[in-house]
Amino acid sequence: MRILLAEDDASQAESIKDWLEMDGYSVDWVERGDHAILAVEQHQYDCILLDRGLPQATGDDILKAIRRQDSKTPVIFITAKDHIHDRVEGLDLGANDYLVKPFNLEELSARVRSQLRQHQAQAGQYLNFSDLQLDPQAKTLSKAGQAINLTAKEFQILYKLMQKPDHILTREQLEESLYAWGDEIESNAIEVFIYQIRKKIGGQYIKTIRGLGYRMHQE
Question: What is the pLDDT of residues 193-211, one digit of tens each?
Fold first, then answer.
């Protein structure tokens, strides 16, 4: 699950990012509003956390830009603006939730989980392909009803493939799933992870499209 965090307070952003990554989420952090708009245009996020007082473009501006092209992705305002008028205004703009600073990180996690559950309930909770079933919220995978253990990085790559089973995803697109861990990505990392996933689920589900990338495959 990939989260965008738009927060210009570096200390607070690092705390939030570290906390959510310990919860198993992939987190992209930007400090400026214009960078947040660019990130939303270039990537698909499962949840977005927005500070309302960002430089270059405000959280309100970003939310309006998001809602013009995407009415469904959960957006949570995280802000010091705690007047009732501010809360009502933020929710009326299209935010799904409103969390006032300072807040407890456990409460933030709970609110993120709540929004993801609601979003998945509307879209269908599970991703299914052949006899594979992936639960994005619980971060679990089963094959014909039998649990399969994947590492966090393996899960993210398979999740991305199963989100768009009819599309060919390039190595670069799949590498985006690994950036949040902060590790240097080896040139053959995707090939290695695909090999490991195939060993666990069977070689027939992921097809290599030579020179292009990978896609899900059903015989």
Answer: 999 999 999 999 999 999 9
Q: Domain coordinates of the chain in residue numbers?
A: 2-123, 127-216
The top-level CATH class assigned to 127-216 is mainly alpha
Torsion over CA of 54, 32, 182 and 193, rounded to 10 degrees?
Answer: 100
For 46-97, the DSSP string reads SEEEE-TT-SSS-HHHHHHHHHHH-SSS-EEEEES--SHHHHHHHHHHT-SE
pTM, full prediction: 0.58
Q: What angle do CA 9, 101, 25 make, to 5 degrees?
A: 70
pLDDT in tens, 93-120: 888 888 888 888 999 998 898 888 777 6
CA 177 – CA 194 distance, rounded (Å):
13
Q: Could you say which architecture CATH assigns to the domain 2-123?
A: 3-Layer(aba) Sandwich (3.40)
